[in-house]
Amino acid sequence: MGRIEITVHDAAPPRKDWKQILPGLIVSAVSLGIVLWVADPQQVIAALRLADYRIVLLAFSLSLVWLLLRAVVWRVLLREQASFKNVFFTIAEGYLLNNLLPLRLGEVARSFLLSRKERLAFWQVFSSIVIERVLDLACAVGLLLVTLPFVVGADWAREAALGAGALVIAGLGVLYILARSREQALAVVTRLGQRWPWIERLAGKRLASLLVGLAVLTDGRRFLLATGWMFLDWAVAVLQYFVLLRAFFPEAAVLWAAFALGVAALGAAAPSSPGAIGVMELSLVGALAVFQIDQSRALAFALTIHFFSYLSSGIFGSLGLAQDGESLTGLYRQIRSLRTRVQDPEPG
């Protein structure tokens, strides 16, 4: 069993990483400033004290159900080539690292850790995460597509949601074409590699493994199965938001939960500090503001739901790292080095 180290000061990112991190830190700082300006800290504390903690505990239990279902989705996308135990703990490790480390290194870590545990190709695992994220985006846009017209009552809202949905479908279409045309894609890369050798070093075997992972898109039954589990996972997330909202707002409606979740999911995709600190809170407070509710209590809700993500990933992610004999510092160095090699191929 490895000892879990929480600090990462001995693995400080190089200067060029700080250039990538800084915009996100600024976005998070500004977001935090806005939510603290619109909400009264004393009223936030009062709302946290007055919340019905029987309901809060029920909402937290749903976050564990959500994590289990998310592991099911990922395992289906991996075509059951990994054990459920390894998939579950690895996904928790990835979320833990995303909450603590910059540049969404948790996604790289998930690929690195699972490929090592199950002897799968790194890029094959990474491609399954790409598909998972695209499905996530589709579900987030779908929630807005369904809820936004009811929230604002404007024709442009439905058109904007339809446009975003079309982009998601187009993205899935591109991945599907790549999956169906693996040999042609590899042939194109080979020809380009003959002219520019760095392309062959950058893509080469990586692209072959990536396309193997994308093959799930050509298996209609498996893709529908993964999509069905993903829909169920998002339904649990809506239920969790609704249950927790009731702890702070007894009058809360399912519409509030679905709309807030959709906005928060898209907001968290924006550049920010690790864990989307500030951005998630601002997204939720802003989304709930359209229902004319108290912003201080809305912030109390946002802080609680955000804490749940840290707590669940922290518990199971730490257990996973301990089982793997990894420390955060050591793993951070490994995945940062891997990320650097992927992004900065040697000239040739």
Tell me about this structure.
The model is unreliable at 1-13 and 342-348 (pLDDT under 50). The chain has one domain (25-31, 40-343). The chain has 15 helices and no strands. The chain has helices at residues 15-38, 41-50, 53-77, 84-100, 105-118, 122-152, 155-180, 182-195, 197-202, 204-214, 220-248, 254-267, 279-289, 295-324, 328-343. The protein is mainly alpha-helical and 348 residues long.
Provide the descriptors you would attach to this structure in a database record.
globular, disordered C terminus, 15 helices, 348 residues
The radius of gyration is 21 Å
Integer tally of domains: 1
What gap, in angstroms, lies between the N and C termini? 43 Å
Principal-axes shape call: globular
